[in-house]
């Protein structure tokens, strides 16, 4: 029963944020601010994770491909597809659910508790539209970009790790990358990243916006939003894989 | 002017506001007082539209806030300024940006014009050299003044203050009270103040509403409150011995038995008969 109530409230929040902006310029400013916060703010962690994700992927694939019949270039092919299909969109989005999600939930939760959201409402500003919508739109714009960056860096990480440890040559790696490339995989990765970006921004926004109480509740809302986002990302990952692959 | 008719608001089975009628007069400080849990915060939140009442009317210059369309409500809210208990300043913005925020959102003025208006109101609340500071860098009293500046920057017709003196020392409280009073008369604003502070009640209470368990128990002004015969109100206002003494002293003073210079000595020497006379 609680699940239905929460889902209903979540949908009402999404409905409530669709309204004519009081001042388009201010909304644009807030949108750009959120793009910078979510995009630039998460770039560091995405770079580190992606690089090592690709490197580990290359080393472990090589470890498992022991047959001499399989050409070395297959390692690059497997790294490429794993990174594009799964690691870049899913792993990075799970990390972003923690980094971005907790930030959104705690920011809105703090604004709710300190009556800043009430202050906006009193001024005649639709607080859902002004605070939540720019966050969701910014996430939908920058998270797919981060996923593309992540995929590129993951493949680069695999190349550096593979050549540095002598698993395969740079030429073999490049050859493997170009073998049997399916552009549809990129479309699939993008479809996943848009879906996950929506969860990463809207779920924490819902929990943060509806906080009641004090500092303890802000912490709880933040944790809950990250857990729910991660579970939804994994469920959506399965559903999208079953539907689109 | 704000008229409230038969306002009722409950949460679950519990009725918190039990049919309150009140009139908030323009150009006057309308105070809502009452003990914790008496429903004054819920009452104020209904007045500004943060809570939807279950029953009743809230008339802003004759227009009912409850039945207004979203657009009408937005327009009405632009005429409302509110000072929150914790000031509710935006943490990431400077003092100047906080005060400029409503202007940025609702006017198309140039930056220079907006800055001029911001400096005007900051000057009006006696806040200088704080434009570039963040809320975390200023004192509680300064935050309240920034809150007031932000509330009045669009020249509102209605000003709501939720416990404007909470967390402030008596001297700063007095400054804030005087400031609210001056702004109310200067701009002919309908000011509604939710307070526990008896000093405010005595100093600026042009119209006082005492709420008790969700009902309006008493209404009057700061002169009438001294002589009121309502037991519940008296036990709320004159809760401490000190305040009881102050009341007696004030009654003596009003009755002309003693003057301001001698009242303390007289009070200390007076007996019950004198006080009750």
Automatic annotation (TrEMBL), chain A:
Keywords: Membrane, Transmembrane, Transmembrane helix
Record carries keyword Transcription: no
Transmembrane intervals: 38-63, 83-102, 136-156, 186-209, 221-244
An annotated GO cellular component: ATP-binding cassette (ABC) transporter complex
Entry protein name: ABC transporter permease
InterPro entries in the cross-refs: Permease_MalE (IPR030802)
Pfam families xrefs: MlaE
Taxonomic source organism: Pinibacter aurantiacus
Signal peptide location: none
GO molecular function: phospholipid transporter activity
């Amino acid at each position: 029963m609680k699940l239905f109530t929460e889902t209903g409230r979540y949908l009402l929040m999404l409905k409530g944020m669709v309204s004519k902006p009081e001042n388009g310029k201010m909304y644009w400013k807030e949108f750009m601010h959120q793009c910078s916060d979510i995009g630039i703010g998460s770039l560091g962690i995405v770079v580190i994770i992606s690089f090592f994700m690709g490197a580990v992927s290359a080393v472990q694939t090589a470890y498992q491909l022991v047959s001499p019949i399989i050409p070395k270039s297959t390692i690059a092919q497997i790294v490429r597809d794993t990174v594009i299909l799964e690691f870049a969109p899913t792993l990075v989005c799970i990390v972003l659910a923690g980094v971005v999600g907790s930030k959104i939930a705690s920011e809105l939760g703090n604004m709710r508790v300190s009556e800043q959201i009430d202050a906006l409402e009193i001024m005649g500003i639709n607080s859902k539209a002004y605070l939540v919508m720019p966050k969701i739109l910014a996430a939908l714009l920058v998270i797919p970009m981060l996923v593309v960056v992540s995929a590129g860096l993951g493949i680069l990480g695999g190349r550096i790790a593979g050549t540095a440890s002598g698993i395969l040559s740079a030429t073999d790696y490049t050859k493997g990358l170009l073998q049997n490339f399916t552009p549809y995989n990129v479309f699939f990765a993008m479809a996943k990243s848009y879906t996950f970006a929506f969860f990463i921004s809207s779920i924490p926004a819902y929990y943060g916006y509806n906080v009641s109480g004090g500092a303890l509740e802000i912490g709880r809302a933040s944790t809950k939003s990250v857990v729910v986002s991660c579970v939804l990302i994994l469920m959506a990952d399965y559903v999208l894989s079953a539907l689109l692959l | 002017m704000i008229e409230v008719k038969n306002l009722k608001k409950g949460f679950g089975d519990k009725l918190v506001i039990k049919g309150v009628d009140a009139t908030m007069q323009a150009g006057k400080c309308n105070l809502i007082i009452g003990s914790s849990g008496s429903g004054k915060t819920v009452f104020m939140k209904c007045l500004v539209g943060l809570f939807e009442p279950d029953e009743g009317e809230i008339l802003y210059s004759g227009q009912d806030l409850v039945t207004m369309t979203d657009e009408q409500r937005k327009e009405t809210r632009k005429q409302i300024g509110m000072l929150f208990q914790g000031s509710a300043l935006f943490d990431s913005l400077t003092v100047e940006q906080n005060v400029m925020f409503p202007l940025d959102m609702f006017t198309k003025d140039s930056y220079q014009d907006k800055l001029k208006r911001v400096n005007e109101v900051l000057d009006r609340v006696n806040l200088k050299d704080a434009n570039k500071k963040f809320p975390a860098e200023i004192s509680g009293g300064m935050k309240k003044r920034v809150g007031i500046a932000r509330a009045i920057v669009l020249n509102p017709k209605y000003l709501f203050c939720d416990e404007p003196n909470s967390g402030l020392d008596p001297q700063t409280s007095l400054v804030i009270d005087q400031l609210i009073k001056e702004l109310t008369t200067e701009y002919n604003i309908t000011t509604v103040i939710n307070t526990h502070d008896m000093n405010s009640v005595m100093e600026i209470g042009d119209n006082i509403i005492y709420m008790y368990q969700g009902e309006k128990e008493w209404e009057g002004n700061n002169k009438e409150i001294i002589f009121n015969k309502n037991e519940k109100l008296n036990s709320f206002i004159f809760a401490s011995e000190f305040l009881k003494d102050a009341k007696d002293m004030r009654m003596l003073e009003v009755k002309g038995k003693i003057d301001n210079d001698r009242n303390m000595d007289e009070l200390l020497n007076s007996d019950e008969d004198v006080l009750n006379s």
